[in-house]
Every structure is written in C-alpha cells, then in structure tokens.
Amino acid sequence: MTRTVVITGLGFVTPIGNDRASVTASLRALRHGLSPVDWLPESGISLAGTIKDFALDDLNQSAWRWPARYTIPRETLRSMPPHGVYAWCAIEQALADSALEPAALADGETGLFCASAGSPRFLTHHMGEIMRSQGARIHPWAAVRSISGTLNFNLAAHYGIRGPVTGFVSACAASGHALGYAHDEIALGRQSRMLVVGAEEPTAESILPFAGLRALSRQNVPELASRPFDVDRDGFVGAGRGRARARSG
C-alpha cells in the first residue's frame, strides 16, 4: 500500500512574482517577467527573465540585497551562490505556508531534494582567481559556492536535514525529477515529509552558452520573445528562479 502524498506549502522567487499571491496574479493576467539585459552586445541576446527586488550581481556578497522580510544568517550566506539566496527565500515561504516547525526538519523523517546546475558565475570567478595566481589563491568556499551540489550543501546544513539529501542535474527536467522522486520517498514510506527546491541564476554565464546552440530567442520585444507554441518562435528566454515545495504524507 502506498501513502497519499499532498503538497502542504509553496514558495516562489520568480520573474513574475516573489510569492504565491503575486505569481498567481501574474499567471491569471498573462503578465510576463522579461526585462532588457545588458550582457555581451555581440551575443544578440537582449532579454531575460530577471528577479525583481533582489540585487545579487556583485561578486562581493556584502553588496547583495534582498527583501527586508528575510534575514539570512551570515554563516549561511557566506558559502551561498546567488541562486542559493533565491532557494533559501522560497523555502522559507514554503515552510511558513505549511506551518512546519524547525525541529521537525531535523527529526530524520524529512528529506531535501534540490534541482540546480550550480553557479557558472562563481565557477568562472574562482577558476579565474586560481589560474591567475597559479594556484596560490584558492578561495575556501570555491567548491561549495560553485558546483551543482551547492544547494544541497548549504540548505541541508542550515536546516539540519538528516533524511535523504539529493541533487538533480537534468537540465530543464531537473525540478520535475526532484518532485517525482520526492513523491516516491513519501508514498513508499521512506520519509514523512520532503522539501523540494529548484533554483537557477539569471546571469550571462548561465544563459548565454545556450546562444551557441541557437536555442535562445533574439527578439528585443518581450511580448514576441517567449512564445513556445507559435509557428514563428525563434527560441526560449533564459530566466532565474527559486521555487520550493513542502510535501507530506
């Protein structure tokens, strides 16, 4: 017999809103979240789905800004990449929505599945420092901030997760895979609850490589750029995001 699985909490940091209510309103009003970006002019890419009310572009974390409703502990922030902040804020929303107490997350009955490709921005930055210094300068957080498991490391440590912690790196399908496997953990009786989060950065380093595949739209009019079912579509538009779900059985 399998157990019934329900979603008890949701959290969003997205180009169309940074909470459940604003995302719902944008979807119903058919509002897009695309904005002009000034990355590399010769790339031909001038639009992306950017996150509003967050300023995480600077490589110096002391310059980062996010909505005042969130207080991220310094010891948690120092090893995070930009999309880790999106993920953290989305999880905080999901936990509040589901009324989960912090103690429940560390009871061994809660797992964490994350979907992310890591931080190409921090990987580029740290590798540049390593190569320029011939290996004399290697930042202590270079690996934890950069690789695809960065969300797992940072979030599991912060929330004290003692159940299964797994990362999914399967491109656009990663969050869907994370949700499916989280469902099975609960349905098969392995865990009582699961946190699932997917997050990516809207940066040149994470999005522009797709231009080499001719996969990105080169439109400069937002309303014409992302139209996947249109016969005249010319590609997709890259975006940043942080989305979290709390699931229980």
Q: Can you lay out the helices and strands and say which pair or pack?
A:
Elements: E1 6-13, H1 20-29, E2 34-36, E3 47-49, H2 74-77, H3 82-98, H4 102-105, E4 110-115, H5 120-132, H6 142-146, H7 150-159, E5 165-168, H8 174-187, E6 193-200, H9 204-207, H10 222-225, E7 241-248
Parallel strand pairs: 4-5, 4-6
Antiparallel strand pairs: 1-7, 2-3, 6-7
Helix pairs in contact: 3-7
Explained architecture:
- With 249 residues, the protein is α/β, with parallel strands linked by helices.
- The chain has a single domain, classed as Peroxisomal Thiolase, Chain A, domain 1, CATH 3.40.47.
- It is 34% helix and 16% strand.
- It has 10 helices and 7 strands.
Mean pLDDT, rounded to whole units?
Answer: 94
Distance between the termini: 13 Å
- Could you spell the SSE succession in H and E letters? EHEEHHHEHHHEHEHHE
Proportion of residues in β-strands: 15-25%
Strand order of the largest sheet: 1-7-6-4-5
Poorly predicted runs of 5 or more residues = none
Category by helix and strand content: alpha/beta
What is the level-2 CATH architecture name?
Answer: 3-Layer(aba) Sandwich
Beta-strand segment tally: 7
Say which CATH homologous superfamily is assigned. Thiolase/Chalcone synthase
Morphology: globular
Which CATH top level class fits? Answer: Alpha Beta
